């Protein structure tokens, strides 16, 4: 059954070819022009990668710092004790604790967007795998979220770090800012994101890592990108 578009959706999509591949600046301008929600919409990028995530050597996980920030306020939880717990609090972590925090999370009390842990806490966090894992919150050394320097990790997260993680279909979702950002700021964040992704290319992938890429806003359409030219710019 074909769903009828609402008046708002028809107005949003009018004059836009949703099947054409766009250069990044043109796509971002269209996204910003048509972001008419009553809130500041998030601008997201989706990369379709030529990987098989079921193969351990082809999985992609990493963190990228966006030079223009994310425009999002995130709550950071740190699993630490003693001096490192104090450092995490001073750095701005909203939730800090040791075994007490582990117990709270086990009860389903998850009031944070990102987890950081000291190596000493990881043995206790193993029991939280089924709780944090499905939400993509489990601390991981490859993501820099298992570290002795918790203060630096908290500050980096607050400044605007995003995680790159391939799902089972080989797709990577990441946001590059808000619709209120300038096109130039969104382009700069996109370039940093793309460079970070290309640097994570598994050695077993001989051809292009990225097959397709799309940019969208929270309530907007998804526009295909001319990713080949963008990838060349980032190399």
Biggest β-sheet, characterized? 4 strands, antiparallel
**Numbering strands along the chain, what is their spatial order in the largest sheet?**
7-1-8-9
Class by SSE composition: alpha/beta
Helix content: 25-40%
Give the strand content.
15-25%
Radius of gyration: 19 Å
Low-confidence runs of at least 5 consecutive residues: none
Number of strands: 9
Average pLDDT confidence is 89
Distance between the amino and carboxyl termini: 44 Å
Succession of helices and strands: HHEEEHEHEHHHEEHEEH
The oligomerization state is single chain
Number of helices: 9
Approximate shape? globular
What this model shows, in words?
By secondary structure, the protein is of the alpha/beta class. Helix content is 34%, strand content 20%. The chain contains 9 helices and 9 strands. It has helices spanning 7-13, 24-33, 82-91, 99-106, 122-125, 129-132, 150-160, 183-199, 227-234; strands at residues 42-49, 61-65, 76-79, 95-97, 114-117, 161-165, 171-178, 210-217, 222-224. The strands form 3 sheets. It has a 4-stranded antiparallel sheet, with helices on one face. A 3-stranded parallel sheet has the order 4-3-5, sandwiched between helices. A hairpin with a 4-residue loop joins strand 8 and strand 9 (222-224). The protein is globular, with a radius of gyration of 19 Å. The model has no long low-confidence stretch (mean pLDDT 89).
């Amino acid at each position: 059954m074909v769903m009828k578009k609402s008046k708002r959706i028809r107005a949003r999509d009018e004059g836009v070819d949703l099947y054409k591949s766009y250069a990044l600046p043109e796509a971002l301008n269209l996204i910003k022009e048509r972001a008419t929600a009553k809130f500041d919409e998030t601008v997201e990028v989706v990369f379709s990668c030529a990987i098989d995530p079921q193969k351990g050597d082809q999985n992609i996980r990493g963190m990228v710092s966006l030079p223009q920030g994310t425009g999002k306020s995130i709550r950071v939880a740190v699993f630490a004790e003693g001096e490192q717990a104090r450092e995490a609090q001073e750095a701005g972590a909203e939730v800090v604790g040791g075994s007490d925090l582990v117990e709270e999370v086990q009860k389903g009390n998850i009031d944070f967007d990102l987890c950081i842990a000291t190596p000493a806490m990881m043995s206790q966090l193993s029991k939280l795998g089924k709780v944090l894992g499905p939400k993509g919150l489990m601390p991981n050394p490859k993501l820099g979220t298992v570290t002795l320097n918790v203060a630096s990790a908290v500050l980096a997260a607050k400044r605007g770090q995003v995680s790159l993680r391939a799902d089972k279909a080989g797709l990577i979702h990441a946001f590059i800012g808000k619709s209120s950002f300038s096109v130039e700021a969104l382009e700069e964040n996109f370039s940093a994101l793309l460079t970070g992704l290309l640097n994570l290319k598994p050695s077993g992938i001989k051809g292009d890592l990225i097959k397709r890429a799309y940019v969208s806003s929270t309530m907007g359409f998804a526009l295909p990108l001319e990713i080949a030219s963008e990838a060349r710019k980032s190399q």
